[in-house]
Amino acid sequence: MRWFIDFDDTLASGPITWALDYAFPQMIQDHRLECDAERFAQAVLHAQERANLDGDAQAILDELFDTMRWPHSLQSELEQAIYQNYQPALFDDALVFLERLRAAGQPIYIASNNQHARHWASHLGIAHYFHAIFTPATCPPKPHRGFWDHILTVLPDLDASAACFIGDDPWSDGVFAEVLGVECWIIDRASRYQPLHNRRPYRWVRSLRDIAIP
Asked: Is the peptide bond before 107 cis (omega within 30 degrees of 0)?
């Protein structure tokens, strides 16, 4: 089995998770904003889905602020907080899982839409676990089939039936795996995607520790 693993929010905290855990709560507290937890969760879910459909980051942020009835003037503050303070950090289950795969002798690859995944993997001391790190520098991003075609130029003997994909986003990682007919695990650490669990054909888990390795 060859394992293809997303980087952001699968192995290490990505900007979205960091913003949800730190930047948004700080902004809400500093400005005493009203925040209905259920409405916010639904707005974030919708924003993530839309991000994989049209990619218009400003329009998506505008819609989220409109939904929450927050002043648009705070958007620059939020963006600045993320730009200045975000640093990826490995999740506590990442190294354990990578060690399990390596001990089982199963090849591991990163397949990430983050153009900086190679840099961050090296910075976090995990680059040596991977046989290759794929990003869409010269090909379309996930979930486009072209990303897989790019991988096949490097791994021409790759058989999709002997591959498994692990990600955190049902709209990029999950749909990508569906397009390829590849087994897919989605890590839903904060149960943000609970409404989708019975509607999408993925193996949903809370942690990399929950993934069975053949």
From this structure: no
Give this prediction's pTM.
0.91
Q: Which amino acid is at 136?
A: P
CB 7 within 8 A of CB 112: yes
What the chain holds in terms of domains, given with CATH numbers, is 2-13+89-210 (3.40.50.1000), 15-85 (no CATH)
Helix (H) or strand (E) holding 42: helix 37-51
3-state secondary structure of 20: helix
- Of the candidates 118, 140, 151, the one whose C-alpha atom is nearest the C-alpha of residue 52 is 140
Task: Walk along the chain (214 residues) and give the pLDDT tens digit of each residue.
Answer: 999 999 999 999 999 889 999 999 999 999 999 999 999 999 999 998 898 777 788 999 999 999 999 999 999 999 999 999 999 999 999 999 999 999 999 999 999 999 999 999 999 999 999 999 999 988 999 999 999 999 999 999 999 999 999 999 999 999 999 999 999 999 999 898 998 999 989 999 999 999 999 8
**If we measure between CA atoms, which residue out of 73, 34, 72, 66 comes closest to residue 50?**
66
